[in-house]
Amino acid sequence: MNKAKDVALLSLKSNSAANGSLVPIELSADIPFEPKRIFYVYGVPAGDVRGQHAHFTTKQLLICLSGEIRVICDDGKHRNIYTLDSPDKALYIPELVWDECEYILQNSVLLVLSSTSYDLKDYITDYQQFLELKGI
Q1: Facing residues of 45 across strands?
Q2: How far is CA 83 from the centre of its chain?
Q3: Quick check: 105 and 65 in contact, CB under 8 A?
Q4: In this structure, are residues 73 and 51 in contact, taking their beta carbons and an 8 Å threshold?
Q5: What is the dihedral of CA 129, 131, 132, 136, to 10 degrees?
Q6: What residues are paired with 39 via a beta bridge?
Q7: Which pTM does this prediction carry?
Q8: Which one, out of 3, 46, 52, 94, has a CA that is 20 to 30 A from the CA of 77?
Q9: What is the pLDDT of residues 19-55, one digit of tens each?
Q10: Is pLDDT at 1 greater than 60 in this prediction?
Q11: DSSP states of 74-129 as a string?
């Protein structure tokens, strides 16, 4: 199966001890871009889908801090499903990749590191427009 172009599931370093785990994220070493914005999404009912868009220029790194989130990534030719169910997994999504996040569990928390500040003009929210932009 071909993968959506340049999407990558990354393993983050995890330091575990009897009294808990710590996942350090070195911004210059562990993230393939310089983050300009960080946000998290929580309180999403189980089964709901968020995202459903692509970005013209924004790159993102998604980390499920709690719960389970299924992420569909689509580059217009290939569609892949990634399961984020551990805080030591991160999903890198480059620009011009359509993504949809299905919240499998009620307590899911999604942390997002973004390469750009928020700009509504950077969002592509119509899938047909996305395909046209990709020349498909």
Answers
A1: none
A2: 10
A3: no
A4: no
A5: -170
A6: 112
A7: 0.93
A8: 46
A9: 999 998 888 888 999 999 999 999 999 999 999 999 9
A10: no
A11: E-SS-EEEEEE-STTEEEEE-TT-EEEEEE-STT-EEEEEESS---GGGEE--HHH
